[in-house]
Amino acid sequence: MNTPREGIKRIRRRLQALMELHSNNPAFDMIVAINRVVSGWSNYHLIANNWSSVANALGKELYWMVMHWLGRKHKCSIAKVIDSYVVNKIHVYGKTRQRIRAKSGNKPVFLRYFSDYKYRTPLEVANKIRDAFEQHGWHSTDDDKVEKETLGRLVQGNSLRDKLEALLGW
């Protein structure tokens, strides 16, 4: 099983749309939003046989997309963006490598790359799900349903998916 080409095109479009949507927001918020998208997409596709090559290619594209977004945002060259936002040889997310960092006050956030997520066999994923099910059980009570309905009404129309749908007409 390989990652479909259409899926790769969709994640590229989604990241580009996300950067357009957050064009006026701080870099910290942008990186947090990108990390959520990268995490979700990677966790879904990391069982694909071509995960390593897909993750490396998308990671390089993402790096330069963010660098150019920061350059446009601050109206400066890539060299100045690198001086301001890139940290070399930092150990985060289980790897030591160059990272893009943004801060909000004293709290730093680092850009996650697709390659931060390791390939897993379908059996490993199934065992992880089975173990979680045995430990916690997946059930809901009536209180959970009321709480979910209330939260659903509060955030309706404010999710990233809703904004992307409005922006791109998905």
What tags apply to this protein structure?
7 helices; Group II intron maturase-specific domain-containing protein
Secondary structure blueprint with pairings:
Blueprint: H1 5-21, H2 27-45, H3 51-74, H4 78-85, E1 86-92, E2 95-104, E3 107-110, H5 122-136, H6 142-155, H7 160-168
Antiparallel strand pairs: 1-2, 2-3
Helix pairs in contact: 1-2, 1-3, 1-7, 3-4
Oligomer: single chain
Number of helices: 7
Quantity of strands, as a count: 3
What is the averaged pLDDT score? 82
Distance between the termini: 26 Å
> Mind describing the biggest β-sheet?
3 strands, antiparallel
The poorly predicted ranges are none
Task: Indicate the overall shape.
Answer: globular
Tell me what portion of residues adopts beta-strand conformation.
Answer: 5-15%
Give the neighbour order of strands across the main sheet: 1-2-3
| Helix share bin | 55-70%
Order of helices and strands: HHHHEEEHHH
Describe the structure.
- This protein is α+β, with helices and mostly antiparallel strands and 170 residues long.
- A three-stranded antiparallel beta sheet has the order 1-2-3.
- The two termini are 26 Å apart.
- Helix 3 crosses helix 4 (78-85).
- The protein has helices at residues 5-21, 27-45, 51-74, 78-85, 122-136, 142-155, 160-168; strands spanning 86-92, 95-104, 107-110.
- This is Group II intron maturase-specific domain-containing protein.
- Residues 8-75 form the Group II intron maturase-specific domain.
- It comes from Paenibacillus oralis.
Give a short overview:
With 170 residues, this protein is of the alpha+beta class.
